[in-house]
Every structure is written in structure tokens, then in C-alpha cells.
Amino acid sequence: MKLKSLIFGVAATAVAASGTWVSAQAEELYVPNLSYRTGPFAGGGIPIANGFNDYFTMLNERDGGIGGIKVKVEECETGYNAQKGVECYEATKGNGALVYNPYSTGITLQLIPKAPEDKIPVLSMGYGLSAAAIGESFPYTFNYPTSYWSQMSSILKYIDANGGLKDKKIGFIYLDVGYGKEPIPLLEKLAPELGFKWVGFPVGVKEMQNQSSQWLNVRKEKPDWMIMWGWGAMNATAVKEAAKIRFPMDKFIGNWWAGAHADLDPVGSTGKGYLAANFSGVGADFPALQDIKKYVVDAGKSQVDPEKIGDVLYNRGLFNAVIIAEAIKAAQEKSGKKAITGEDMRDGLELFDLSDARLKELGLEGFTGAIKGSCKDHEGAGAVFIQQWTGDNWERVSDLIPPMTDVVRPLLEEAAAKFKSDKPEWKTQTCG
Amino acid sequence: MFYREAGQFKTNYKDDQAMFPILQDRIGMLFILVIAFGIIPAFANTLVFNSIMIPFLIWSLAAIGLNILTGYCGQLSLGTGAFMGVGAYSCYKLTTIFPEVNIIVHFFLSGFFAAAIGVAFGLPSLRIKGLYLAITTLAAQFFLEWCFIRIPWLYNYNDSGAIDSTTRSLFGVTIAGASAEPMVRYYVVLCIVIFLAWIASNVIRGRIGRSWMMIRDMDIAAELMGIKPLHAKLSAFAMSSFYCGVAGSLMVFMWLGSAEVESFDINKSFLVLFMVIIGGLGSIKGCFMGAFFIFVLPIMMRALPGYLGLDVGAATMEHVTAMFIGALIIFFLIVEPHGFARLWGIGKEKLRNWPFPYG
Q: Is residue A155 part of a domain?
């Protein structure tokens, strides 16, 4: 009984105290980081969170923040769980959060309707709802540098340039959740237009580490190329299974969530030749990353293992921070305020313009392609490149491949219209 | 002494059959209602509404659902998550097909869909018992999850495969959708949960509830005494699934705003089962206590270092919370295997005897 009353006492205090949730100081740029360092996808979540935090710490240490005020990054653990993600959102939004990066399509879908109500933008960097690229329909959602559909079109372009697409059979192996199913409408649309056939191989979340039946089907179907939309433990398993049935590795392309060091390190030389799309540079040879080493990691202000700086997903998290930092700068310039609000941040994200010259200034020359957003375009038409696994590291093997905007854009518009169709109160914007 | 019933005489059958026959219980209940309807809304912020109170009430409702089946009728079920899903998906379909019908009506209608599915999967319970039945309900869980992915009609052929809440109002006040005020949603959920909890506790006290308990305690004896297992077991499945279905639809429309199939996976079934076991099998108030312990306590623990001004990493806190809650579960189940409801009963007994305990 004693312990019980103690627990209830503690709990009651917590309830009473929750009325006065700790709020951030006024002169601060508050950016919550919905990370997942626990759970089944922690292998991918940890490097992303580290890269994200370290870039802002570096800006604070080197430049004294952005526009003279410091950025406060607060991590909230989601465990890749949509319910916990919403809980994190509710817990942090009152502190003056500028933007949310959910790192999970499930959480993104939940935040998209909340964003216009709370006037805090959602930046789902290369994930989430593809249709959010249509700025008129989704004023508060952004998916720089490109959406999944654009990425798929870039991958198809790569295949076309490397042996042709016509009359080929493309196998599509995907995680059987919203994320993996996203590009299917595009495949269905493009297959007759470009003259290829495609076969889908869904992998349930529970079967991620046991894909023998799917790969047995792959062997039966004999596709010329395989494309994978995987995440977490699924990726390494798929590459191993592909090796088992002797599928040629250089005809197997993963998307940008299926091509990290965390995925291929356990596979090692078996996966040699495996291809993956990417939009954030590999390696730590960029001046900005050297600054992170100097100001953050060597000063003991990071959680990262120094050897992992420059890993694919570390750089992905860093790139997300770069987009936010640039948008904050644009927002500060437009509003004339230093401490901006979520609404200013939204405008800043629309003004986002990452040119090659600006990348060089940031110390990230050649890190990614130029991205420019607008009121209409919330994906920025960023290009991807293809990287190849050498057996112990990733190596860039292609130039930047821009998406087939002319084909993808009308499809995105159609999807956005469909999304709005049963929601008469959905808030849109008109672009001048 | 604190809890003395002496002097409270019941002079008619009505008093004897009252839900709360003791004055102290009535005062206590009134006190809880005042807190729930007055004090919490007066002090709570959106975080407390959206992340603590609304989900707490919804989980309590799901736990009541499972408790009817497992605690009162003795049929072990691992399909709770899927039955919640049936409610959620049918509510989504109903409200998109008939947008003009009030969403509250849809919440209850979707419960009937869940009840029908529950009865279908409850049929094997007439032949198989105990752990074997658990396996068949597990089959329901996997089969229904499969349906939620593979039948695109259920989610209106959305590319994302998710169902989402749309804006719906009652008497001109928006109660569902992203623009609904958290306090309004809280009141809606609170009223539904209190209403259903009241219905449940009355059904349990009545003829149907007693037949469930007879089946639970000894089915052969119950059958010999004229209880039809077909009626008793299937009605328990129906009512249990109805409650879970309503909880599922509330989960999507009042709490999460959108849901994918993962929102109704096997982990949710386990979560609700743990709530029922920790709270106490065969007790309505235990459901609330279990939901508090399993769902609310970890959230509070995670927030604790923030209040104390300690800088603990989010992931570290997650691990610490998981360990601490795990240890507490073991501790409480060793101290009192019948759950919090039983502990509550013992506490009440002690208060009654104080200051001269005996026995």
C-alpha cells in the first residue's frame, strides 16, 4: 500500500504540474526533433537524429546560431510509433515549435491535418504524402527535396539510361505499409506509357526478416530489374536473399531509405554492387562536416561515434537541418524579425532556395542538387543520384538525375485533389 | 471508521439494487465526476487532453470491452486490436458514405459492425476453451489486419492506405477533425465512456452478466442449470466487440485523427490485455486503473526529468521508463495477483476496520 500511495502521489503531482509545462525562452529558435533511438528502426533513427542535432550545434558554436539567435533543438522519442509521435507533437508544440520533422510516414499523415490548425509547418524530407508537393493544396506541408513519386521516376530514368526500359520487367519489393505502397500509382501509370511491365512483392512488417517466399516468387517471375522500397531490418534481409537466388546486384536498386551504411554493413561483401538512390552526399569530406568535427564532435557535444560522421543517414539528418536552417534564414529576412513564428517559418520554407552557389557557401559543394521551392511547388524538384555498395562503403556512380516532372506533377495534382475531395473544410491557398 | 456502513439501512428493494449502495461510494463517485467534468478541463492544456486524458478514456473503454469477455465470461481473447480496427474502419466508411448523419450515431453503429465480426470469430468458443481459444482469436487479429491492408475499399482507395478523420460537428460545435477543440473532444469522449461504462456495469449486474460469470466459473454446471452457452458466450463476444469497436472509432476520430493498420496491430491487443490483467479481471473500475497504469504512467514518467530540470536524453528516459514499468508490473502482480481492483477492495476493507483491524 505504501508504494502504491507513493506512485499515486507522484502521478498526482505530475498531473498538477502539467498545467505549467516548461516553455522555451523567447529569444530562441525552437526546433523539436522527433527522433527514434529505440524500437525496431533505431538503427536508422540514431544516425539521422545525430546528424540533425550536430548541424544545429555547429551553427550555434561557430556562428552563434542563425541571424544572431541560437537554435534550441529538443529531442522527443517516438520509437517510430505514430501514437507516440502525436504525443511528442502535443508536448512540444506549445514551446514555439517552428517546424516538425517526423521521420515516419505514419506520423506525418497524422500531423498533416493538424499543421494548418496550429500554424506549424511539417517538413517530411523525402517521405510522407507525395501529394503534399502541391503547395496550393497543402500550404503547411513540404517534402523537399523530392517526393517518392519523383524519386521513382528518377530511378526509372536511371534504368532507362542503363540498358533501356522498354519491354523490361521491373520487380518492385516493398514494405507493406503506407510508405511502401506510395509509389504504386506511379508505376501503374508509367508502365504502359514507357512500355515496361512491373510485378509487386509486398513484405509485411512481421515478415521483414523472413523474405524467402517473396524471393522465391522473384525467381519465378525473373524480373530484369528489382526496385526496393524498404526500411530497417527489411533492407539487409532483402539484399541477402537476393544474393541467395543470385540476382545480379547491379540490377537491384533501393530507394533512399534502403541504401544506408546501417543496411549494408551487416551484409558486407555479399551485397557488392547493390545500388541505391540518394540525395545527400556521402562521406565527411565536405567543409561543413569538417566544421562539425571541429566544433561539435571534438568538443564532446555530440552523441555520435566519430567514425560514423559522413554515413548516409547521418548526412541525411544533417541535410534536413540544412533545409530548416536555410528556411529560418529566409523567414528572418522576409519578416524582419529574429525570433520567428511557425507562420513565418512556413513562408521561409516556400522561399527556400538552395542554389549550387549557396551550397558552396555552406561548405557543401556537390552534396546535393539545387532545390528551389515556391508557393506552388513544395517538393523543389530535387534530383537524386545513384550510389553503389563496394562491399564496405558507398560510392556515387551516377550524375544527378532530375525527376520526370512533366509526368509526375499532374499525377500529384490528381492525388491532392482526391485527398481534398471528401474534406470540404480543407484549408488551401492560392498562389499568385 | 472512515468507511463505515453502519446506520445505512436499506428499507426497499430499490435501495438494495442501487449501483452505489453505500453513501461513501456515492460521494466518491460524485467527487470523481466533478474532477472529470470540472477540475480537469479547468486546468488542463492541450497536451493533457490530447495525449493523456482522451487516450486514457479510450483505452479504458477498450479495456472494459475485453474485461467483459475475459474477466466476466472467462474467454481469453487476443483480437482486441483488430476489433478496435473493425470499429474504426467501419466508422470511417459510414461517415464517408453518409456524411450527413451525426458522427456520434456512427460511433455506435460502428460498434455493431465490430459486434457482428466479434460474434463470427466467437463461434469457435463453443467448442474450444482457454489457450486454444486465444489462438483462434489470434487468427481473427491477423485475418482482420490482412483485410485492412488488402481490401482497399475499406480505406476508400487512398494511396497512403490510411483512414483519416474529417471535420464533423454536433449542435454547431466541431467535435471531430483537426480543427476540433481538445476540450470539446474530451467532453464527447468522457460522456460516451461514462455512458457505456454505466451500461456495462448494469448489464453485468443483471441476468446476462450473471450468466457470463456462471459460464466463467464452471461451464458444465452453468449448462446444467439452464444457461445456454451459445447465448452466453456469443453475447459476451458481441458486447465485448461492440465496446472495442466504439473505442477504435473514438481512437481514430477523437484522438489520433488518422490511422494506419499498425494502429490496430497485435501489440494493441496485448496492451489492452495487460490493462485488464493489471487492473483486475472482472472489475469495471479496474479497467480505468489498468489503463492509467499501462498508458498514463509511462507518459508521466517520461515527462518527469523535464519538471525536475534534469537533462536526461529522450532515449535514455524511454529505456528507464520501460524498465521501471516492467518492474512495477512484476511487483504488483506478486503483491496482488488479482490486480488493482482487488488492492482497492483490500484498502477499502482496511479503512472500514480502522482503527481496530482484525483477521
A: yes
Residue A239 lies in a domain: yes
Q: How confident is the model at residue A21 (pLDDT cuts 50, 70, 90)?
A: very low
H helix count then E strand count, chain B:
17, 4
Measured between CB atoms, does B257 come within 8 Å of chain A?
A: yes
Task: Give the CATH number for residue A256.
Answer: 3.40.50.2300
Check pLDDT > 70 for residue A5. Answer: no
Q: Residue B188 above 60 pLDDT?
A: yes
Residue A82 belongs to some domain of the structure: yes
Taking contacts as CB-CB distances below 8 angstroms, the residues of chain B near A79 are 318
Q: What is the pLDDT of residue B308?
A: 77
Cell of A369: 542538387
Distance from C-alpha of A33 to C-alpha of A303, rounded to nearest angstrom: 14
Give chain A's end-to-end CA distance (angstroms, integer): 67
**Residues sharing a CB contact under 8 Å with residue A215, sequence separation 6 or more, in sequence order:** A238, A241, A242, A244, A245, A247
pTM of the model: 0.84
Cβ-nearest to B166 among A14, A117, A423: A423
User: What three-state secondary structure class fits B317?
Assistant: helix
Tell me the ipTM for this assembly: 0.78
A307 and A368, same domain (yes or no): yes
Same domain, yes or no, for A304 and A198? no
Same domain as A190, residue A175:
yes
- Give a yes or no: residue A180 inside a domain: yes
Cβ of residue A15 closer than 8 Å to a chain B Cβ: yes
pLDDT band at A1 (very low <50, low <70, confident <90, very high): very low
Domain with A406 in it? 148-278+386-410
Q: B354: distance to nearest CA of chain A, Å?
A: 15
Same domain, A35 and A50: yes
A26, pLDDT greater than 60: no
* B151 in contact with chain A, both atoms CB, cutoff 8 A: no
Share of chain A above pLDDT 70, in %: 94
- Cα distance between residue A155 and residue A244, in whole Å: 24
CB atoms within 10 A of CB A19: 12
Q: Find the angle CA(B214)-CA(B216)-CA(B221) to the nearest 5 degrees.
A: 50
Architecture of domain B44-353: Orthogonal Bundle (1.10)
Say yes or no: A179 and A124 in one domain. no
Partners of residue A181 in chain B, C-beta under 8 Å = 159-161
- pLDDT tens-digit profile of B279-293? 988 899 999 999 998
- All residues of chain A having their beta carbon less than 8 Å from the beta carbon of residue B260 are 82, 106, 109, 177-178
Q: Are residues A163 and A263 in the same domain?
A: yes
In a shared domain, residues A122 and A234: no
**Average per-residue pLDDT for chain A:** 85
A336 shares its domain with A251 = no
**CA distances (Å), A208 to each of A40, A202, A234, A308, A402, in order?**
11, 10, 5, 25, 31
Set of chain A residues whose Cβ sits within 8 Å of the Cβ of B262: 82, 106, 177, 205
CB within 8 Å: A7 and B297: yes
Question: For residue B313, what pLDDT is reported?
Answer: 74
If one counts the domains in chain A, the total is 2
